[in-house]
Amino acid sequence: MKTVRLVITGNPGVGKHTSAQLVARELKAEIIDINKVALDNGAVLEKTGKGIEVDTKKASKLVANILNKKKKGSFVIVGHLAPYVMKKSAGIDMAAVLRRSPRKLEETLLERKYIREKVNENVSAEILGISLYDSIKAFGKRKVAEFDTTGKTPEQTAEEIIATVQKERPRRSGSVDWLAVISEEEVQRYFSY
Ligand SMILES: Nc1ncnc2c1ncn2[C@@H]1O[C@H](COP(=O)(O)OP(=O)(O)OP(=O)(O)O)[C@@H](O)[C@H]1O
Ligand SMILES: [Mg+2]
């Protein structure tokens, strides 16, 4: 089996960890969870009511160290902070940016009991495609592939990611446009926080 070096990123709640587990099992890859690496090594700036704030500078060094030691074998790096803690020189094969429709993402985050401010902040970031934009800046357009998880099962998403990473051709992104599918009223609501 070919060695695969994959990043799975995207906004909180889009399904990164759920699909990463399935992808990693299928590819016999090791999962490197950025949040876990940061938490286990004290790379945390503060714990607020809204969650933890990771020290991205420290986390970046920690992840680079792990990758330097990892000379062989497949890995899947998971986390919404991937574009901010990974270096282009990490030589990954693909950065999968998972997307989810604003309404479905809102549902998921409310189920998690996130406070309204944090829900709106994350849904707004998804509407604007910040994770995709920052991933393209960090990894380069040819490495970034976008996956819409809306209405798909985690298994379907994992399968799509695996099929795409195994192809050598440039990755594709830019087809998801939530502004085209939500109303003006929803935009106003999500952007008030
Ligand atoms: N197509 C899909 N792929 C992955 N997860 C999905 C999909 N559809 C629904 N889900 C569900 O979405 C929920 C959120 O997934 P998950 O916890 O993996 O998100 P996450 O992106 O890792 O969030 P965080 O960044 O906060 O860790 C889970 O309940 C998962 O089962
Ligand atoms: Mg997660």
TrEMBL record:
<dbReference type="GO" id="GO:0004017">
    <property type="term" value="F:AMP kinase activity"/>
</dbReference>
<keyword id="KW-0547">Nucleotide-binding</keyword>
<dbReference type="InterPro" id="IPR027417">
    <property type="entry name" value="P-loop_NTPase"/>
</dbReference>
<dbReference type="GO" id="GO:0005524">
    <property type="term" value="F:ATP binding"/>
</dbReference>
<keyword id="KW-0690">Ribosome biogenesis</keyword>
<dbReference type="Pfam" id="PF13238">
    <property type="entry name" value="AAA_18"/>
</dbReference>
<keyword id="KW-0067">ATP-binding</keyword>
<keyword id="KW-0808">Transferase</keyword>
<keyword id="KW-0418">Kinase</keyword>
<protein>
    <submittedName>
        <fullName>Putative adenylate kinase</fullName>
    </submittedName>
</protein>
<dbReference type="GO" id="GO:0006364">
    <property type="term" value="P:rRNA processing"/>
</dbReference>
<dbReference type="InterPro" id="IPR020618">
    <property type="entry name" value="Adenyl_kinase_AK6"/>
</dbReference>
<dbReference type="GO" id="GO:0016887">
    <property type="term" value="F:ATP hydrolysis activity"/>
</dbReference>
<keyword id="KW-0698">rRNA processing</keyword>
